[in-house]
């Protein structure tokens, strides 16, 4: 797992609040993504057979799309740790992001009871597996709100 340059911000000691997405939800998402990948491979293979394109071109196109999709989807955080001073650590399979809650202007929840909570970070977006009504997640969000009263939560 890659560490972001800001990983040194994490305070000593265990986090004050932690939310970890349910394993069945995370596994279900990646299973769905794997099935989608297989479907795309099958569909693109069928299309490329009917076209007069070089097979290497088709293979490169498929590989690029799937690698791109998996690369970004593995950055969705399944765990968030928050300390009282507002330091947050979002952990995904690809990397760990450490950021201060005070640096996050906006968080956008999905319109459905499950999905991804999107945090607008300084130079990028951070996505967290989200399940509405989870008490641990609500406590984490309250701690973020207390550390950064200026943050705007949408759809929460």
> What's the total number of strands?
9
Q: How far from one another are the termini?
A: 30 Å
Kindly give the count of domains: 1
Counted by DSSP, the helix tally is: 3
User: What radius of gyration results from the CA coordinates?
Assistant: 19 Å
Give the helix level as a range of percent.
Answer: 25-40%
Shape: elongated
Structural class: alpha+beta
Order of helices and strands: EEHHEEEEEEHE
Question: Order of strands side by side in the largest beta sheet?
Answer: 1-5-4-3-2
Q: Describe the sheet with the most strands.
A: 5 strands, mixed
What is the residue-mean pLDDT, rounded to a whole number? 81
In terms of DSSP E residues, the strand content is: 25-35%
Low-confidence stretches are 1-9
């Amino acid at each position: 797992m890659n560490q972001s340059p800001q990983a040194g911000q994490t305070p000593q000691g265990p986090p004050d609040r932690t939310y970890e997405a349910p394993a069945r939800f995370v596994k279900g998402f990646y299973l769905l993504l794997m099935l989608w990948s297989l479907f795309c491979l099958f569909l693109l293979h069928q299309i490329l057979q009917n076209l007069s394109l070089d097979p290497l071109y088709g293979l490169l196109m498929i590989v690029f799309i799937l690698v791109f999709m998996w690369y970004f989807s593995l950055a969705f955080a399944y765990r968030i740790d928050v300390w009282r001073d507002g330091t947050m650590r979002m952990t995904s399979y690809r990397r760990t992001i450490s950021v201060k809650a005070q640096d996050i202007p906006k968080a956008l929840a999905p319109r459905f009871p499950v999905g991804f909570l999107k945090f607008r970070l300084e130079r990028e977006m951070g996505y967290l597996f989200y399940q509405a009504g989870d008490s641990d997640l609500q406590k984490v969000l309250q701690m973020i709100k207390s550390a950064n009263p200026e943050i705007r939560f949408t759809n929460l």
